[in-house]
Amino acid sequence: MELNTTLTGSVKVGSLPGDVPTSRDLPPAIKCHACGVTKHLGRLTECHPYRINPPTLGYHLIRMVRTLITTLLRFALRIYFKRIEVAGLEHVPIKTAVIFVLNHPNALVDPVFLLCLTPRRVSFLAKAPLFRMPVLGSLVRAMDSLPVYRRQDEGEDTTKNEETFAAARKLLAGGGTIGICPEGVSHNAPGLRPIKTGAARIALASVSTGEVPNLLIVPAGLYYTSKTHFRSSALLYFGKPIAVKPVVLQPDGSPPRDAVRELSSQIERALRDVILDAQHEEALHTIARAERIFSAETPEDESLAEELELQQRFVKAYTVLQEQAPERLYRLEVRMSRFEEELKQAGVDPDDLSPPTSTIAVFRQVFKRSVIFLLMLAPAIVGTIVHYPAYRLGGYLATKFSEDSEDVVSTIKIISAMLLFPLTWSIIAAVSYSLLGWWAALLSLLVIPLCGYVAILFFEEFDQSLGGLRALAFFLVRRRFFVRLLAERKAIKSEIISLGKETVAAAE
Q1: Rounded Cα gap, residues 98 and 215, in angstroms
Q2: DSSP string, 333-383
Q3: SS3 of 84, please?
Q4: DSSP letter for each residue of 150-181
Q5: Whole-angstrom distance, CA of residue 69 vs CA of residue 108
Q6: Counting Cβ atoms within 10 Å, is residue 422 exposed (0-12), middle (13-18) or buried (19+)?
């Protein structure tokens, strides 16, 4: 006798992992542990979209596929982003049912961060069209996602969302977690867009019906230093959780509108606390420039969480200054622009504008980097030559299909890299096999990807060393100008601190 089972979230429908049911052990009906409904075995698959037979093999197969996909995506993130930080993990409960609410500035890259870096197994609410896309639809299903039917998606029946919300409540009742981007769409706006009410409705209905006795909403903010650029940095920042309290439901079983609006407002405020939320693009540029000048004088490496916190303070100060002292804000912007233009003419990056500590230290650093470059040169050349065509093709595809939407550029680049680079390795392995045999093919599969990574590191170190050498040459040849720029940077920083203190006093 065969048992049809399903998976939803981290809960298996049917027998427990490792149990192999036989015809003697199976009752005529069985309870679905994900949704609590008792059905005959032949109809159990109606509860959820997955149909797995036999249960043990299917259960482990789904877990294996998810683990494999997560591992590959985590590897892709670590290659694409030079620096990734996770902050606020103490706010993520280990066992309690959780709804993660996430800002959405970078298309499919955003949920991948939550999927790969959260210490919980997360299921997602994803727009319904993704489920019908070739390849991508299979991946979305493998991630235990639930479809959301939106009005802006042509031909979608939004009444089906009630089924999705019911499935989400049952998943939470099993102690699972759900990830939601309440803004509804990916975007390029400098701040948070108005959020939808879906997260609040699911949370209130789950708690108020008694299905989920303890539910927390955890805000998760994503901060990108440059979301479209390869080898930029990213921060996943978890904020303080929101405890969801039960309310009296309406006769149709839905939560009251006032309660939904109030919880949605709480979610919006919590999200604003973990993201960089500027009102205008011009403000975002000014704040980024101020932060860069302000932080360049600090010798220690600043964490991304500290950088975000500093920029959040600048956002508040910028808003106050725009209202109360627009002339001083304008003068500061002009001063920063003039400073940056002088640095540009000198060919020096703000981060490199620091005098050398001593002649011996300079020569020691030059010698050390020279040795490293010589060791990396040969594999870097091989890695560059081999991977350059795929790299350029990925950039072309990102430009062509992004249609001037910056929020999808990284998604296209990462997907194309995950397809084109393995294809490159496979072609080289096939050629190596045809010429030299299996040992050469296996060796190429090990060496070629490693050479590609060495090439990335080589050019990063080369760019950093070149910037340091330009700054050193500038210091030796035009020392007075160099010292004047240092003094100007210090004066700008003092002005920023002064304005910051004044805005804090004004706010109080």
Answers
A1: 6
A2: HHHHHHHHHHHHHHT--GGG----S-HHHHHHHHHHHHHHHHHHHHHHHHH
A3: strand
A4: -TTSTT--GGGHHHHHHHHHHHHHTT-EEEE-
A5: 14
A6: middle
If you ran DSSP here, which 8-state letter would residue 186 be given? Answer: -
Residue 102, H or E segment: strand 97-102
Question: How does DSSP classify residue 240?
Answer: -
Q: Per residue in 298-309, pLDDT tens? A: 655 678 998 999
Show the tokens assigned to 159.
């009444």
Give the HSE-up count for residue 238: Cα atoms under 13 Å, Cβ half-sphere: 23
* Residue 297 pLDDT: 65
342 Cβ contact list (under 8 Å, min separation 6): 485, 488
- Cβ neighbours of residue 506 under 8 Å, at least 6 residues apart? 320, 324
For the record, the structure tokens of 186 come out as 């990916």
Is 445:422 a contact under the CB 8 Å cutoff? Answer: no
At 53, list the tokens.
């037979």
**Distance from C-alpha of 492 to C-alpha of 498, rounded to nearest angstrom:** 10
- Residue range 8-44, pLDDT digits in tens: 333 333 333 333 333 333 333 334 444 444 433 333 3
Q: Are 108 and 130 in contact (CB under 8 A)?
A: no
What's the rounded Cα separation, in Å, for the pair 301 and 353? 15
* Residue whose C-alpha is closest to residue 21's, from 38, 49, 41: 41
Helix, strand, coil percentages for the chain (3-state, nearest 5): 60, 10, 30
* Alpha-carbon distance values, 89 to 93, 186, 201, 216 (Å): 9, 24, 25, 14
Q: What is the CA radius of gyration of the chain?
A: 27
**Residues in contact with 153: Cβ distance below 8 Å, sequence separation at least 6, in sequence order:** 127, 128, 129
Q: Which of 265, 3, 307, 37 is nearest to 167 (CA)?
A: 37
Beta strands in 205-251 (DSSP E): 215-224, 232-238, 242-243
Q: Which amino acid is at 369?
A: R
User: Residue 348 carries which side chain, given as an amino acid letter?
Assistant: V
Going from the C-alpha of 338 to that of each of 320, 327, 341, the distances in angstroms are: 24, 17, 5
As a whole number of angstroms, the distance between CA 73 and CA 84 comes to 14
Q: Are strands 122-127 and 146-148 parallel, antiparallel or unpaired?
A: parallel
Greatest alpha-carbon pair distance for the chain in Å reads 91
Q: Is the bond preceding residue 54 a cis peptide, omega within 30 degrees?
A: yes
Q: For 217, list phi and psi in degrees, rounded to 5.
A: -105, 120
* Per-residue model confidence as pLDDT tens digits over 467-494: 888 888 888 888 899 999 999 999 998 8
Dihedral of CA 53/54/55/57: which sign? Answer: negative
**How far is C-alpha 122 from the chain's CA centre?**
14
CA atoms within 13 A of residue 92's CA, in its CB half-sphere: 22
Q: Could you tell me the two tokens for 48?
A: 């959820």
Q: How far apart are CA 391 and CA 386, in angstroms?
A: 10
